[in-house]
Amino acid sequence: MAHVLLVEDDSQVREMLLETLKQEGHDVTEASNGKEAVAAYRANPPDIVITDIIMPGQDGVETIHTIRREFPNAKIIAISGGSANIRGEYLLGTADALGALKTFSKPVDVGELLDAIDSLMS
Ligand SMILES: [Mg+2]
């Protein structure tokens, strides 16, 4: 069981991932943008962060950068589907360069995501 900070601006995707993580027995804190995520991380550091990249206010790239700077051992998983203008693979490459330990393209294969959490926790 892990304490997961789930950061996603799309409420439908967030709900789906929330249910999946809870069914697996994980304890989940939700955030809908990067600013909320950094505040939640500081207040109660989770075992793992799962963050979307394209979000209003503060995006996932800046969020990963900020969290890793303050918490060098943070375990971060990045997810993205990209946008009309930017390919998801490009964004996930940036996330990887900033220290995300795993990256997944949307739609996320939840089995792979759960496996990634298990491997980061072991
Ligand atoms: Mg988004």
Structural commentary:
With 122 residues, this protein is an alpha/beta fold. It has a single domain, classed as Rossmann fold. The chain is 46% helix and 20% strand. It has helices at residues 11-23, 34-43, 60-70, 88-97, 110-121, and strands at 3-7, 27-31, 48-52, 76-80, 102-105. The protein has a five-stranded parallel beta sheet, sandwiched between helices. Strand 1 (3-7), helix 1 and strand 2 form a beta-alpha-beta unit. Helix 2 packs parallel to helix 3 (60-70). The chain starts with a strand and ends with a helix. It binds magnesium ion. Magnesium ion (MG) is lined by residues 9-10, 52, 54-55. Magnesium ion is lined by residues 9-10, 52, 54-55.
Reconstruct the topology from this structure:
Elements: E1 3-7, H1 11-23, E2 27-31, H2 34-43, E3 48-52, H3 60-70, E4 76-80, H4 88-97, E5 102-105, H5 110-121
Parallel strand pairs: 1-2, 1-3, 3-4, 4-5
Helix pairs in contact: 2-3
The site of magnesium ion (MG) has 5 residues, from loops.
